[in-house]
Amino acid sequence: MVRTRFAPSPTGFLHIGSARTALFSWAFAKHNSGEFILRVEDTDVERSTQESVDSILDAMKWLDLNYDEGPYFQMQRMDRYKEVIQQMLENGTAYYCYCSKEELDKLREEQMANKEKPRYNRKCLNNHNHDTSRKPVVRFKNPTEGSVVWNDLVKGCIEISNSELDDLIIARSDGTPTYNFCVVVDDWDMKITHVTRGDDHVNNTPRQINILQALGAPIPQYAHLPMILRDDGQKMSKRRDPVSVMQYEEMGVLPEALLNYLSRLCWGHGDEEVFSIQQFVEWFNLDNISPSPARFDMKKLFWVNAQHIKAMTNADLLQVLAPRLSKLNLDIDTLDINAILDLVKTRGDNLNVIAQEIAYFYLPQELNPEDVTKHLTDDARKVLSDFAVYVNALTDWSLDAIKALIKEFCAKHNVKMPQLGMSLRLKLCGTTQTPSFDAVIYILGKNNVLDRLAK
Ligand code: GLU
Prior knowledge:
Blueprint: E1 3-6, H1 16-31, E2 35-40, H2 50-63, E3 69-73, H3 78-91, E4 94-97, H4 101-113, H5 123-126, E5 137-140, E6 147-152, E7 156-161, E8 169-171, H6 179-189, E9 194-198, H7 204-214, E10 221-225, E11 228-230, H8 245-250, H9 255-263, H10 277-283, E12 294-296, H11 298-311, H12 314-327, H13 337-344, H14 351-362, H15 369-375, H16 378-393, H17 399-413, H18 417-429, H19 437-454
Helix pairs in contact: 1-10, 6-7, 9-11, 12-14, 13-14, 16-17, 16-18, 16-19, 17-19, 18-19
Bound molecules: glutamic acid.
């Protein structure tokens, strides 16, 4: 059974790049009817916070990337790591090292001076006259011969000579296990078959494989995903770019649109651009991921978002708009919200704009003085009050009748339709940017139209 995991460190919000990692990991499990595990790597106690844990979990929930197991927390697994370290000490795949920082610094300087690669010289492995007053660290006994080879599902075959690898410290002198070691024990215990993660972890992989081998554990397959860069090829930065998943929620992006967009960063299915998450799961596997970095194109993301908004049923759209509409204090039931949604759902590439488009039906926007000078002149006001008389006399409140009425009014009063449209829109909605004004009149209903014209 395929088992994948997403293993964020809770040192901040869920980063957009990590969300893509989570998505690929999740989708690969789903595609293979496997299981997806969430593991919180919180052993960096200085930098990990509960707030970050919560915000990562919230973002996963918002994206609807459900996990079959977890969240596991590494800090709750300390006993297990210590148990494995003890076993390794006993079977000789790890050893205590009592060397002081000064000794290690000196060793490094000597090696550098001799143009050798700095690495631990295994003094404590062979020499048992330690200064035992000092608390030792535990080192992994890395193989000295041969190399580590793995067939990365994204990067292809990678081979690292063991002569490049040091005897990694797996437990600090206070007994706490170190990062790479926890990852190894977890991937082993959690029976992970495929490790999908950012390619900043490529350097850790040979060390992790060696430890897994020493433990007699199966070696998972690895897929190291390339970075996501800005559109201009630079690194994304917290200060400059929206890099937190929830910032996209604030910008009115639908989670399914964000996932759709993210899915196409380093992966693709022909020319398909807009698809559902179910469709993605059906198509996705780890074989055809591009090894070069992806570029984040904000415009494209919002275009994809617009397509998803457009394709939603009114009921679904209303549901996702609900928090925004309730913030605007609109009494939705007073107008035909379905008719409004039909008109406005193609008029914006994010939910904030769509909510604003809905809002002016219920509450005219505040007028901007320029529009007033331009479109609500004394003449225009006179036209509008004449128009109100026509509206008042209309008995058949249908779109066709309203269209006919407008035509008739313009002909009789010698008014150009676009001109009437501008001043009407302003009076009715407070903005000249509305859908076709006959439809607006129809939706608002006679009383609202007359009320607003009278104001
Ligand atoms: N905790 C690591 C990170 O957030 C991920 C480690 C892994 O996936 O192996 O970058």
